[in-house]
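Dear H.,

Thanks for agreeing to be a second pair of eyes. The structure we're designing against is below in token form, covering all 346 positions.
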């Protein structure tokens, strides 16, 4: 049987596929089983933040495979603590919980928000407001958090406790906030909902309103994190610091990882979110943050530059945060924009 025939026979088809069977890849170039060459500008839906099979990434993961492949949560892990320190230093947030996926990271953030409110205000203050056209994952709870009716089907009963409001509309947000609201959860650029960029003034007003009312702000950076908007994380373009932030996808560069980070006032909370793989060594040896050098807003690895939607002159070179070029000349500078970065001669 061909690869496609085996796939059709044995694999649950939760995704529609292109009629291509990839066999190998390097950088932005992928090859199918017949040797046909493809340029991949999708970044593995935001996962391959260093491209395919980056040399440093491969070396780090291979070395870890021959050292120790897994460590349970009963032991201290230098790789985990090093990555946690790096993330906290780069973001200004205070604590990290590791997991396996973006959905799991979002579940963790939801649990922390509800635990914080329960401890401080008692039972009943547990509702979370999300935005229409949002997407926060495919577990039963994160589907409920997703503000799209198309996802609210089949898997009844969904987790309760979510309200929805239109983006960029503070009146709509305030209309669904009540004394039961513990958090607002949002993507600063909605991905699944249509690449909708939230207005900076709306975001700043939302954060102030939440801070004034002790409503936690959760920023879902599963798609936007790790350099895909020109800065390390999208919220840094908005000049805000969320109470909770979730990251996945590009942070592992090809290995599964999920991260929930919290700010200072939440760092003491034991939110009882556990998984066997929080000490997963492979993904922490391959993590992107520890394997690239960070300039002002530009990520530069040993020979790569990662930026989203980059233009040189009038020609679009690459999109979605994939690798642009090798041997970057010294006279290249950049101009930060909300939805693109233009590279010019400096």
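And this is the sequence the design step returned. I haven't edited it by hand at all.
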């Amino acid at each position: 049987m061909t690869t496609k025939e085996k796939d059709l026979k044995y694999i649950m088809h939760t995704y529609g596929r292109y009629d291509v069977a990839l066999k190998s890849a390097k950088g932005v170039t992928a090859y199918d089983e017949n040797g046909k060459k493809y340029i991949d500008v999708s970044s593995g839906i935001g996962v391959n933040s260093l491209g395919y099979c980056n040399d440093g990434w491969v070396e780090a993961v291979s070395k870890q495979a021959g050292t120790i492949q897994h460590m349970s949560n009963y032991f201290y892990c230098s790789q985990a603590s090093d990555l946690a320190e790096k993330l906290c230093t780069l973001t200004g947030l205070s604590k990290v919980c590791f997991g396996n996926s973006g959905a799991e990271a979002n579940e963790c953030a939801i649990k922390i928000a509800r635990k914080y409110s329960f401890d401080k205000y008692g039972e009943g203050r547990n509702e979370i407001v999300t935005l229409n056209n949002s997407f926060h994952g495919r577990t039963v709870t994160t589907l409920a958090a997703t503000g799209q009716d198309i996802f609210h089907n089949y898997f009844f009963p969904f987790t309760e406790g979510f309200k929805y409001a239109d983006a960029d509309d503070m009146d709509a947000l305030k209309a669904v906030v009540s004394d039961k609201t513990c958090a607002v959860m949002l993507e600063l650029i909605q991905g699944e909902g249509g690449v909708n960029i939230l207005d900076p003034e709306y975001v700043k007003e939302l954060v102030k309103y939440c801070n004034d009312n002790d409503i936690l702000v959760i920023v879902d950076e599963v798609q936007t994190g790790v350099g895909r908007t020109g800065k390390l994380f999208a919220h840094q373009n908005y000049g805000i610091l969320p109470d909770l932030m979730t990251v996945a996808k590009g942070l592992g560069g090809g290995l599964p990882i999920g991260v929930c980070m919290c700010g200072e006032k939440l760092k003491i909370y034991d939110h009882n979110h556990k998984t066997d793989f929080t000490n997963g060594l492979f993904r922490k040896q391959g993590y992107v943050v520890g394997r690239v050098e960070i300039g002002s807003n530009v990520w530069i690895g040993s020979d790569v530059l990662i930026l989203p939607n980059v233009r040189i002159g009038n020609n679009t070179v690459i999109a979605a945060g994939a690798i642009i070029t090798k041997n970057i000349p010294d006279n290249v500078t950049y101009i930060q924009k909300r939805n693109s970065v233009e590279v010019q001669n400096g």
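Two observations from my side: The first strand starts at residue 22 and ends at 26. The two ends are 55 Å apart (CA to CA).

Warmly,
E.
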